[in-house]
Amino acid sequence: MKNVNIGIESIGIYVPETIQDYRYIGKESGIPEDVILNKFGIRGRHKALEDESVSDMAIKASIKALGDTNPQDIDLVVYCGSEYKDYYLFNLAAKVQESIGAVNANAFEIHSLCSAGVYSLKVVKSMMRDDENINTVLLVTSSKETDLVNFKNERSRFMFNFGDGAAAVLLRKGLNRNIILETHMVTDGRFAEDVACYNIGSKAFHNDGCSCNEIMLDVKDQKSMKDRLDPVSLKNFYTVIDNSLKKSGYTKEEANYIAPIFMKKSMLDEILNEYGLTEENSFILQDYGHCQSADAFISIVEGIENGRLKEGDVTVLLGAGTGYTWAATTVLWGEVVLDQ
After folding, report:
1. Distance from C-alpha of 256 to C-alpha of 274, rounded to nearest angstrom
2. What's the chain's average pLDDT?
3. Is the same domain home to 157 and 21?
């Protein structure tokens, strides 16, 4: 069982119909439209309606991913999306399990912020190989973090590109297609408290002056975080990509497609150039915004639809989350059989 392939059978994505474009973001934030469009790298983001919950979006993406699969055949539902969910201290994975009719499945959650989707592929793959009773898994991520972004807070400007959306990945043991290979992660805990909703949690529990309107994502010291992050971020992206490829038996020259987390175009261009690739070997999420850990999965779906992701491509899914963590997972895309 240790060497059996774990493959991606399907990916479903869901984004709300409402779009807030770069003009809207510019007006609300006071930042010039051309800066939002060119420096932030976003043309528009999807915004969920007030009564559309994080679980609503997760369920819609899950139904798309399932297709004709009988939900009763699912052994495990894993949620790896935003910690901002329908309720505080709430098991969203169990909500999805019940809502889609996966009555035979267990359910639990993995949290690593915006790197969780990419890293959870490793966790789920390992579980499936080690447990003969886990053959089909639904991995789900969803985010409505636009609720937590205050356009008037200059410290949080790097979050103005957040968008709402969800993705679900159906994984199957013994599937010799879209095979999940190896993962690498880098963690730098110096950034652990740089970004948070500081007015909720055990440290703020007795803060009588806190109101719900104050529960917003914030940055303690934007300049300090940027000064520490800029010198290491690109290097850590290279480290996780290089090591994910190496563990999977490939050199950096053999990478064919990068499925990235949302990032500004200039950084993505640098990453692509490092691996001898161009924009045609990736997908820029400029019409989605940053949908938390769904980003890489959206890039996979768009890559297929746009003819950029092809059979046999060595594909690297790339994530990064405040905290700070960087993660990459290599997937051999298409119908393949690996030597065991």
Report:
1. 12
2. 94
3. yes
Strand boundaries in 15-98, DSSP class E: 19-21, 44-46, 76-79
Spell out the residues 6+ positions from residue 337 whose beta carbon is closer than 8 angstroms to its own.
Answer: 176
Task: Flag whether pLDDT at 340 surpasses 50.
Answer: no
Contact predicate 298/288, CB 8 Å: yes
Helix-helix angle 54-66:92-99, to 10 degrees: 50
For residue 256, what is the domain's CATH number? 3.40.47.10
Which strands make up the sheet holding 76-79, listed edge to edge?
A: 106-109, 76-79, 136-143, 165-173, 6-14, 177-187, 325-335, 314-321, 257-259
Number of domains making up the chain: 2
> DSSP of 91-102, one letter per residue?
-HHHHHHHHTT-
Please give the pLDDT value at position 202.
Answer: 87
Q: Are 286 and 108 in contact (CB under 8 A)?
A: no
Looking at the fold, whether 151 and 245 belong to one and the same domain comes out as no
pTM (two decimals): 0.94
Q: What is the number of residues in the chain?
A: 340
* Residue numbers of the domain that contains 213: 181-335
Verify that 161 and 292 share a domain, yes or no. no
292: left (phi over 0), alpha (psi -120 to 50) or beta: left
- Packing angle, helices 265-274 and 222-247, rounded to 10: 30
- Kindly tell me the burial class for residue 104, based on how many C-beta atoms sit within 10 Å of its own C-beta (0-12, 13-18, 19 or more): middle
Structure tokens at 329: 């997972």
Reduced to 3 states (helix: H, G, I; strand: E, B; else coil), residue 170 is strand
Q: Note the pLDDT tens digit of each residue in 9-40.
A: 999 999 999 999 999 999 999 999 999 999 89
Residue-wise pLDDT for 174-206, tens only, equals 999 999 999 999 999 999 999 999 988 888 876
CA–CA dist 197, 320 (Å, integer): 18
